[in-house]
Amino acid sequence: MKRMLIAVPILGGMALVFLLFLMAPSVNSAPIGTAAAGKAFWGKFTSLWCLSCHGVNAEGAYGPDLAGRGLSFEQASRAIRKPWGVMPAYTTQQVSDQDIADMVAYFNSLPKVAEPGPWRTTVPAGAPLGQRLLIETAGCGQCHGDVLGSPRRAAGGEGADFAWFEELVYEHTSEFPTGRMGNFSKARLTEETLRAIWNYISQELGLRVPTATTLKATAASDGTVTYALTLKNNGIAGKGLAMGNIYISMLVPADSSVVSASTFGYQGVQRFAPTGADIAVWLAPRLAAQETLTYTLTVKGTGASAGSNAFVRWLSPTRFVTPGVAGEFIEIARVRP
Fold it and tell me: Could you confirm whether domain 211-335 is CATH 2.60.40.1170?
């Protein structure tokens, strides 16, 4: 009997402690966010591109509205780490828990919206299937535009195939752990859909060549000014696509004449009909990855130091950049000595 009397209060104390433990409020491990920090993170294109789909002020667009919905940290974290729908998943290296908490505080500081805003990139009238898929289905166009100009340039620099594109989309953070794009899910963005997008951008549009150009001006004591244009193919040597059928032109400043010019491919001075200006023109058959072309134009006269600009255009491999315009071209800003 004594043993029972002793055991009861001990058992009762243990039960009381256990009961108090169950009744105690749970410890919330979610970080505390601030709206100001969340707004700053949301608005930086150097962090993520969330606003491209969800709106500049989180009002919604291609993606759902987030403003004023009273989201919790747990809800936002789940949506970012293991999202529903086609949205890519983001890692802690790309967006930390503190970043998420800050964004939640920012969303909850905003008023609700009656209607989401317009899509950043809309589907052009009469768009082919591949273009509709990359804009409507996958959402790629909301960040990369309606013809995926930057991804096509990256692919051209690599001499890429579908396997490269597939890895870039499904395992993006393996190569770019702090990049602005997450990893898409094969279950929601199927390989069949991705292949249709790849066929559109690589075959119907054509891959692009990554280029770097500079234009410099140097004045000499004899009154001449030399304008030097450097064009480089930044693709990977032995892999990247070559530029072909290249047209290079430099403006001959008004009230000046050409003293000398690089001789390789030089076509002489021609009149540019749209503006009535004189331009020096060169043609080059090819520029392989990691190769460089340099052209100089030396002029003399009262307008020699007025400045020049340059245009570079190539017809291959790109078949489509601007609707109705063959080839791809870049304009180099005006330079003065």
Answer: yes
